[in-house]
Amino acid sequence: MSAPRLARGAMWFARRVEALAFDRYLVVGAACALVNNVILIGGDAMGFSHGILIALTWAIGCTLGYVLHAGWTFRQPRSASAYLRFMAGCALGVPIAWASLVVFAELLSLPMWQAAPLSTLAMIAYNYASARIAILWRRQSLSA
Questions:
Q1: Residue 13 burial by CB count (10 A; 0-12/13-18/19+): exposed, middle or buried?
Q2: Is residue 137 over pLDDT 90?
Q3: Which SS3 state, helix, strand or coil, does residue 1 take?
Q4: Separation of alpha carbons 50 and 103, rounded Å
Q5: CB of 53 closer than 8 Å to CB of 43
Q6: What pLDDT digit, counting tens, does each position of 52-68 carry?
Q7: Is 137 helix (H, G, I), strand (E, B) or coil?
Q8: Binning pLDDT at 50, 70 and 90, where does residue 139 land?
Q9: 142 pLDDT above the threshold of 60
Q10: Cα 37 from Cα 114, distance rounded (Å)
């Protein structure tokens, strides 16, 4: 096999591996979105405040997301430092989640069964970027 053909094959393989990681990300993201929506819709039906519900979705949904993304999506060993980075990234998304719920549920007066999925859609791009950075980020060695 010629070197250019081998290089093309390696490039194809690398793209396919990346595509599989994205496919796995979507499955995990859908599972976490389902959990978050159950918490939001069920909690709203039970009369919990939006603040409590956002805190619950952060604690439960993000922990579930870290475990599944580290072990399956990105196939990396779990560690306390990666978990803390992941949860910090998720915490940075809390204002986005809060703002989207305010817009959909309060300003637009949508029922939670509509507002929660719309809020979830607002978080997808942010969560993918923060998960990828948290799990794949490595400190560069100071020694060269």
A1: exposed
A2: no
A3: coil
A4: 12
A5: yes
A6: 999 999 999 999 999 99
A7: coil
A8: low
A9: no
A10: 10
What is the rounded distance in angstroms from the CA atom of residue 39 to the CA atom of residue 116? 9
Which own/partner contact pairs does 75-79 have at CB distance under 8 Å and 24+ positions apart?
A: 76/135, 76/136
* Torsion 108-109-114-119 (CA) sign: positive
Q: List the structure tokens of 34.
A: 């389902």
End-to-end CA gap in the chain: 36
Contact 64, 86 (CB under 8 A): no
- CA–CA distance, 121 with 52 (Å, rounded to integer): 20
What's phi and psi for 49, nearest 5 deg? Answer: -75, 160
Site of tokens 């956002």? 54
Q: What are the residue ranges of helices labelled H in 46-141?
A: 50-56, 62-68, 80-92, 94-101, 112-136
